[in-house]
Amino acid sequence: MSDEEASKYPHSAISTWSGFVYQGKVALYHCLKLINQGDCDFQLQLDSTDDFAIYKYNNLISAHQVKAKIGDYRSNYKEALEKSASIELDRIAGIKRYFHISQPINDHSDYLAPNHERVEFYAYGEFRHCELDKIEELTKQIIKEIHVRQAIFFDDSLIETNYCLLSEKISSQALTIHARIQNEGDAQRKAAYEHRMTAANILADITDANPYERKDYFAIELKARLHTHLEERLAESLPCMSDAAYKRARRIYELIRLSEGGDFKTLCQLMKPSEKFSRIQNSDIRRYSDLLHTIDAEPILKRLPHYLDSNNKFYAPTALYLPEPTDKRYCTSEIIAEIKNNDDLGRLLFEFNNLIAAKANESFIIDTKYTNCFDEISIDDQDRIDSNITKSLCISILTKEDAEARLK
After folding, report:
1. Which residue range or ranges hold the ABC-three component systems C-terminal domain (predicted)?
2. Strand 364-367 relative to strand 394-398: parallel, antiparallel, unpaired?
3. Strands, DSSP E only, in 132-267?
4. Predicted TM-score (pTM) of this structure
């Protein structure tokens, strides 16, 4: 695309780091708010006309700029407010312009620009700001209200599930833009401008009363929660991080954000291989994240974070927490039991048979007595397979210190 053609499309911030998480949460909240008010004909556009924008019948209805953690004073937002009020391309005179902030400021009255365009600080109930940790609960409340209007029976688990699926939908839209740029050669501006998400599709996800039947649910949920945890950790730790630690944290965050569902199915199983494939607990997410950020070895950031030693053996970080000597025995029996009932886990452990524990009293080896024939394994066939062992799967559970020594 020539410079002249590219000038027809707004600048895209799709690949920028700052505010990505907050921006997506705010966009989802606003879309659900419109749907709850009965508007189901709009389209959501991300990172093009503005941080996000609402279109209807190909006309811009509202432009939204989102700013997280910039400052306590209106003056901190002067340049951003001027940009929000500018008349450019689809942002013609008279359209609605909203400004979203994550913290209170000394003056949140409407901004009236010299060109007479008005920028309104977005209202969240009685407040003109919304913290990152509050937007999720507000969004879930709107989902509940939509369920009531649609006469859908719901409980807290269903609300949590639909929220995770919808959050992933916003992230997937951004990934679709990236994929089109890379695979089809579209210029970034054009791809961001043209790819939009319809209100009808968002509503369809809300009214799906059986999201647990979706095969990818736990993987999608893990991605959303791990992504949020890494964002919050980075924000909290940034002032005292070294440049090297910051670069690693940012690369890990970007990998998680851009990874696809299949990678998270793998992570769901490898993060806690001693437990049934299910929802990963918050404590496990924290332990896994802490290990990734503190282990004295640079991870290979492909598919999901992992390590490779000088003998080309793969190592996977986990959330295994084994502080007591007796934990070794329980962990061994639990992993063997899970392999017996989960062919996918067995295949993964043949590839990643060196597991780094988030905390362990000592390193140890689990001899599973299984060979690499998981396509054939069933409960009825177990005795036959056990009697024909040629080379069994041995899994190393390593302390952080022992893993670091091997990876030097």
Report:
1. 119-358
2. antiparallel
3. 196-198
4. 0.58
